[in-house]
Amino acid sequence: MSRTRIKPKKPQPQRRELHLDQLKAILDRAQAGPLAAQDLALLHEAVDTLAFLTQELEAKGTTIDRLRRMLFGATTEKMSNIFGEPPGPAGQAGGAGSSAQGDSPATGPAAGAPDAPAGQPADNPKPPGHGRNGAKAYVGADKIPVPHDKLHPGDLCPACQKGTLYRLAQPAVLLRIRAMAPLLASCYELERLRCNTCGEVFTAETPDGVGPDKYDETAAAMIGLLRYGSGLPFNRIARLERGFGIPLPPPTQWGIVEHAARRMAPAFQELIRQAAQAKVVHNDDTKMKVLELMAGARCEADDADDDERDKPAGERTGIFTSGILADAGEHQIALFFTGHQHAGENLADVLTGRAAELPRPIQMCDAIAANTAGELKTIVANCIVHARRNFVDVAANFPDECRHVLDQLRLVYQNDAVTRAQKMSDDERLVFHIEHSKKVMDDLKAWMQALLAEHKVEPNSGLGEAIKYMTKHWPKLTLFLQQPGAPLDNNAVERVLKKAISHRKNSLFHKTLNGAHVGDMFMSLIHTCELRDVGPFDYLVALLRHHDRVAQSPADWMPWNFTDALARLTSAADPPR
Questions:
Q1: Contact at 8 Å (CB) between 385 and 366?
Q2: Which residues contact 438 (CB under 8 A, 6 or more apart)?
Q3: What sign for the dihedral angle of Cα 475, 478, 481, 483?
Q4: Cβ proximity of 27 and 47 under 8 Å
Q5: Mean pLDDT estimate for the chain
């Protein structure tokens, strides 16, 4: 596989809380004598931060708002947040007849905060509600029927002494919630009897249903779900269980999930195979730490000559978790891969399993080279939200021009929301966008080109750079006007990558590449279940309990059809009489 030189990203200092009184105390100690190593380290960090901020302020495209987002995190990119005023009533979307998305596509149509839901007029108020979950929402609750203690169906009514009682279809519901440990332990005390003559010892039989293993399939599924589904590190799980009087050391937890991953590997490989057949694939990267790979990179850097030290850091020393979301129409598949490879190379590996007779898939990604690195045979679409964000960053300096761009893109998102509300097919959606969105995008392109051609905008300014980025990638940004089923943005895989980001924020790193692979497998299976609205715990337990059958026919044990496989096993075990 050929290597693509990736332009390294500019390193940013790690965020750390450092108060002004700490710096003043260090300066006071400096007057008294030499500084301690800890004081020197804090002072170095403060100077590095000052240098970084100075460099950013000197950059041509930097604004105070951008620095605020960089230091304190980004807020939502709604129009009301960008321009500091409440959003007005949403207009009609290209003649569609209703306002499907009344605000900006800052985080995409699925994750944004529109003024009105899809298919609902903007002036319709949200129906009132208390926001609490009803009893029907507790699908995992045990259903315990409670009969009346005195009356029965068919009895004479005690109130009127005339009518007959009958059972209502809907019982009265009383919901009670109690707590328990994520992992429970049962200690079976098997009675032992010993003969006082011969000394033979007789031990009671193990009760029915008690397996041979100390940790059963449910324990492995729960640890994997807590660790890779909710981002709890092993030491936190151990601390939680210790509070319930159930010791569960981190090495023990790792051994359990590693053993479980080997049993679930056929299902993971089948997910990869089916993802390769999808019509649309999204991909992107996020940074990750794997201590084993980091140690190897340091050793290579120590042994390298000066020429090799100057190679781009992103070429083979960077460590990433790639997220791939395959949209097969009926279901979506989330995949995670951690290592030195970029998202484009990992996607190329996945697509090697694609059937030869299938057409090229649509690949949605942002425009960086890492997402298309590798030998890919795809139809590339670029993310509109990434192009839009360039205008958001300079909206304070060019409010009128940026507002115009965001308003035009809002119309396109409103049109796309109408296609979802009306459940249009891919071909119908393409026709609708050509009819209602093509003129909007064509006019926007002509307007941006005119700004540059008539020298109304400095090409090297922040607005000029945003315009040049958008016009440069225009064919890929407007693929939704050319290919049926092409998405508008890459927000879907951004949401998928939150699984890996949650792991990174809570656990900081993987220790080995094998540990990263185990985490990728669990996260892929868990998040695919969540996309399908299937309980991941039940699915993992099913894979582990029937791992031999999963290995024989993994396609029958996917999140969307494993219940059918369980039903077939049940019917085979209890044949009709």
A1: no
A2: 481
A3: positive
A4: no
A5: 83
Report the alpha-carbon distance of residue 144 to residue 73 in Å, rounded: 47
Q: Is residue 523 a contact partner of residue 551, using CB atoms and an 8 Å limit?
A: no
C-alpha 429 chain-centroid distance = 26
Q: How remote is the C-alpha of 293 from its chain's centroid?
A: 24
374: left (phi over 0), alpha (psi -120 to 50) or beta: left
Query: Which has the minimum average pLDDT: 12-16, 178-182, 197-201, 244-248?
Result: 12-16
What phi, psi does 380 have (nearest 5°)?
A: -85, 130
Whether the CB-CB separation of 83 and 69 falls below 8 Å is answered with: no
Q: At what angle do helices 234-243 and 250-275 cross, to 10 degrees?
A: 130
Distance of CA 367 to the CA centre of its chain: 20
Q: Per this entry, what is the length of the chain?
A: 577
Q: Lowest mean pLDDT of 125-134, 163-172, 177-186, 259-268, name the range.
A: 125-134
Residue for token pair 């620095």: 67
CA–CA distance, 169 with 336 (Å, rounded to integer)? 46
Closest by Cα among 479, 531, 525, 493 to 284: 493
Mode of pairing for the β-strands spanning 280-287 and 362-365: parallel
Closest residue by Cα to residue 233 from 521, 515, 540 = 515
The pLDDT assigned to 479 comes to 95
Distance CA 407, CA 391 (A): 12
* Token pair in block for residue 553: 């026919």
B/e letters for 336-375, b = 16+ CB within 10 Å, e = fewer, are bbbbbbbbbbbbbbbbeebeeeeeebbbbbbbbebbbbbe
102 phi and psi angles, rounded to 5 deg: -85, -5
Q: In angstroms, rounded to a whole number, what is the distance separating the alpha carbons of residues 196 and 204? A: 18
What pLDDT sits at residue 316? 63
Is the Cβ–Cβ distance between 415 and 96 less than 8 Å?
Answer: yes
Q: Which residue has the tokens 């332990």?
A: 185
Distances from the Cα of 431 to the Cα of 223, 359, 437, 482, 561, angstroms: 48, 21, 10, 10, 34
Classify the phi-psi angles of 383: left when phi > 0, otherwise alpha if psi is within -120 to 50, otherwise beta.
beta
Q: Quick: pLDDT tens for 435-491.
A: 999 999 999 999 999 999 999 999 988 999 999 999 999 999 999 999 999 999 999
Q: Which two tokens stand for residue 103?
A: 């605000």
Q: What's the rounded Cα separation, in Å, for the pair 96 and 433?
A: 10
Return the structure tokens found at 318.
């960077």
Spell out the alpha helix ranges (H) of 328-376.
343-351
**Cα-based distances in Å from 244 to 227, 248, 252, 312, 448:** 18, 11, 17, 50, 63
Single-letter residue type at 383: C
